[in-house]
Specification:
The chain has 419 residues and is α/β, with parallel strands linked by helices. It has helices spanning 2-11, 29-41, 72-95, 97-127, 152-157, 160-217, 222-237, 251-259, 302-306, 329-333, 342-347, 351-361, 369-372, 398-407, 411-414, and strands spanning 19-22, 49-53, 63-67, 130-135, 138-145, 148-149, 280-284, 294-297, 308-309, 312-314, 317-319, 325-326, 337-341, 363-364, 386-387, 391-396, 417-418. It is elongated and about 125 Å long.
Length: 419
């Protein structure tokens, strides 16, 4: 009769038909149920791998990628190889003679603008019998006679009217010089924009073919195609990230790297923290799973059931990223079966409510008790919820079954099968 009830529960693929196996302690419930489910699971389809990847638009909300069973690790390795290939392609592009010539041409443009503006000032000064002089206080215009600057003592001997005329001409040139100096920041911004555009063009040319090759391998997976497109856009916008040294750069160095190509021969090891943004966190790997998974959770805490986000201490603060998301037993059992003791669940804070919430919503949302109740204030993540399709089998005594059924109105909706 118990076996028939179990087959009935696992055979109905509808929400709420989870199972509560009730019986006396020591009756062999766990062994019996596990053997039955494992025999059945071997004939079922192996679920897909689940990966978390960076959300380049909103980094605090990592995205999920669902891949064919056993292909998650291979995809992660391909992305690692992709980034290395991209770095090599960028290195070659930035070191090419054509790129260097175009960059030098852009840099010369600023120098030529400044040179032309200075020559114009110099010509205007000559027409007024003045010459520009560079001093610690800036550019000044001094009167000249026979090609020589008039010394201050001789200048005092000139007639008052002539001195006033020279001062007036000098003030006019000072205003013209001021206009030129005000234009220089604008010229510099224009040159930086041209440098950025040149970098983007070279990066796009180098990165496009490398990513297109990988894109063809996943033509049937729109989510992966979208992710590869996001990687391509992010690399084009932040190519300097691939060339940051171990531990990143200071603010000044980072700003310079955004505007200029990386120096030849300079690049980090693949372990650079800056490259973590392009990695793939394989949350659930079914490469060794045969059929559907059967998971027994002996310590059903909230985090062991729903997963967790780990943190590292950095500069006195707790930090994290999508690479530090860890799977819970619901993730590992997704597409299969989860066996858990109800008494152990009830003894763990928030675990019972978290399990019900996942079953009711049909998705796994990683929750931190500290964040839920504002017990800690630190940088955390809001990972995208994972769609849930699992049969949960609770083990417990008849007393617990009838107590929960009486006092928890949600219980009967979620666990409709009693064995």
């Amino acid at each position: 009769r118990a076996e028939q009830a179990l087959h009935f529960g696992v055979g109905i693929q509808r929400d709420g038909y989870n199972i509560f196996a009730l019986g006396a302690q020591g009756a062999g419930k766990h062994t019996f149920i596990k053997d039955l489910l494992e025999r059945r699971a071997k004939k079922e389809k192996t679920p897909q791998d689940i990966c978390y990847v960076n959300n380049f638009e909103e980094p605090h909300k990592p995205s999920i990628l669902v891949l064919d069973a056993g292909s998650g690790r291979a995809f992660a390795e391909r992305i690692e190889n992709l980034i290395e290939d991209v770095r090599n392609a960028l290195q070659a592009a930035f070191e090419s003679e054509d790129f260097q010539n175009r960059m030098q041409s852009v840099n010369r443009e600023l120098q030529e603008k400044q040179q032309r503006a200075f020559e114009k000032l110099q010509h205007m000064a000559e027409e007024r019998n003045l010459t520009p002089l560079r001093t610690p206080a800036g550019l000044v215009f001094a009167p000249v006679r026979d090609g020589e600057v008039i010394p201050p003592d001789e200048l005092e001997k000139l007639p008052e009217e002539e001195r006033q005329d020279l001062e007036k001409k000098s003030e006019e040139l000072q205003k013209e010089a001021q206009k030129v100096f005000q234009k220089i920041p604008q010229w510099q911004r224009e040159i930086r924009e041209k440098q950025k555009e040149l970098n983007r063009e070279a990066t796009q040319y180098a990165v496009g073919p490398v990513i297109e090759e990988l894109r063809k391998q996943y033509e049937g997976n729109s989510a992966v195609i979208g992710y590869l497109t996001s990687i391509e856009k992010d690399i084009v916008d932040h190519a300097h990230v691939l060339f940051q040294p171990e531990g990143g750069q200071g603010q000044a160095g980072g700003q310079q790297a955004q505007n200029m190509p990386p120096p030849p021969g300079h690049g980090p090891a693949s372990e650079s923290p800056a490259l973590r943004r392009y990695r793939v966190n394989v949350l659930v790997d079914h490469s060794k799973t045969q059929g559907a998974p059967v998971v027994c959770e002996d310590n059903p805490t909230l985090q062991n059931l729903l997963g967790r986000v780990e943190h590292l201490t950095h500069m006195g603060a707790l930090v994290t990223d999508f690479n530090m998301i860890r799977a819970g037993s619901l993730h590992r059992a997704n597409g299969g079966y989860l066996i858990v003791n109800i008494l152990k669940v009830l003894q763990q804070p928030f675990a019972w409510e978290g399990l019900k919430r996942a079953l009711r919503s049909g998705k796994i949302t990683i929750e931190s008790p500290g964040q839920m109740y504002s017990l800690i204030s630190t940088v955390s993540l809001e990972p995208e919820a994972v769609p849930l399709n699992v049969k949960v089998v609770l083990l417990g005594s008849p007393l617990l079954y009838y107590l929960i059924r009486h006092y928890d109105p949600e219980f009967s909706e979620l666990f409709k099968v009693g064995a």
